[in-house]
User: Fold these one by one.
Assistant:
Number 1:
Amino acid sequence: MNPTLHTLEWEYTPDYELLGVSSGAGCHRLAWSMNRAFGWELTCDQDVVVSQGKKEDTVHPSMRYVDEEGGISVTLVLNRLPEGMLAAGASGLDFLVMVNHHELAAHEVIARLRTLPEVAFVTALDPEECGAMEPLTIFD
């Protein structure tokens, strides 16, 4: 009897928009500025550990705000470290911001982020193309 092998293909679609941010400010300073601009309360959350192949794993700190009643979930993660990137396809960006906001569209969040003095550049990213999808699944 030959068992039939089946391959299950599943396409995961994240329920967040991913933004890339360039900023000379540190994580806490950027989070403070974002909290002021949006009324969020980003606070320290779990670290994202990323395998760097033959090199030592990198640990990327995150800050997170969740308001389940308001349908808001925002996570700020440090992307660039001297030892390696969280998302290699976004190597020119200092931070990644996961945004699931039922009141604001991604383009509205981007427009407001661009007004912050701590933000030099912000853009929308494809989580899969930039390599961030797998490491960021810890926040699902």
Number 2:
Amino acid sequence: MDRAQKEKVVEELGQIFESSGVVVVAHYEGLTVAEMQDLRAMMRDAGGAVRVAKNRLARIALEGKPCQGISDLLSGMTVLAYSEDPVAAAKVSEDFAKKNKKFEILGGAMAETVLDRDGVKSVAAMPSREELIAQIASCIGAPASNVAGAIGAPASNIAGILSTIEDKAA
């Protein structure tokens, strides 16, 4: 890899560190190509990506970035999982680590907050952006459905009473 290619990689990594909602750092030693492809596919489906980069270049890219504290995690065979959604990459990494013991999560970063192993686990337990939007929408829609039910209830009650009176009269 010549100097121009290295500079390009450092620039790409710098963009990843700046624009990602979460970055997860993990060891992947011993994973097969097929397992790595499965991880990439899972991450892509969740709206994230996986990147293997030289630790030295990643450390250079981290200089001056808010998540610079994760440079200590970059040793050995490391892989970066990242996503704009602050939860997606952590969820997929956790799910993959449960299925595959060779994938060991070291930690990560969420904006300028450096996460240890337990921190990544906590982020993975949080609802995703889409889940939060759905919860908010249901909270907003619930009162409207309650009002519609209350308005429709007296008419159904009257119909029930009339039906009962009709049955008694017959």
Number 3:
Amino acid sequence: MEKAEKVKVNIINKQKTVKIPTGLRLVIRRCCHAVLVLEEFEGDAEVDVSIVDNEQIRAINFEHRQLDVPTDVLSFPLGENGTYDVNPETGAKMLGDIVISMEKAAEQAERFEHSLQREVGYLATHSMLHLLGYDHVNGGIEAVRMREKEEAVMTRAGLPRDATYVPEEG
């Protein structure tokens, strides 16, 4: 039942603070594709991913959300209620933009004691779900459903949660 014909993930590294490990771009692409398969997305899709540092994401966060702090990931959906603009050259549905702070991702990977690949994969997955209309801001069942989908995608993408994912309390 695999739909999601093709997904083009355009990845641009706009920072020099954290070295991009080999294979990280593939992880991002795999997670983006896994979200579309899980959601049974029909047709070709396109998404742009920018990799930035904390200062860059802080500026974007302030410009768009009036929050003057760095965050780990920002999502800028182009579609609404399943309707998307279409790239006239490719016919692909343009889902939107994802902005990932590599600095924040590295900090969080260390704090949660898992790999940078898993953290960036999680952020890409989380953001892709936002591009498809999921929201967790108000908590409740929507947040729970989104979290369940994130873990299903991470497992499908070969990055399942392991015993060291949750930091020990104490």
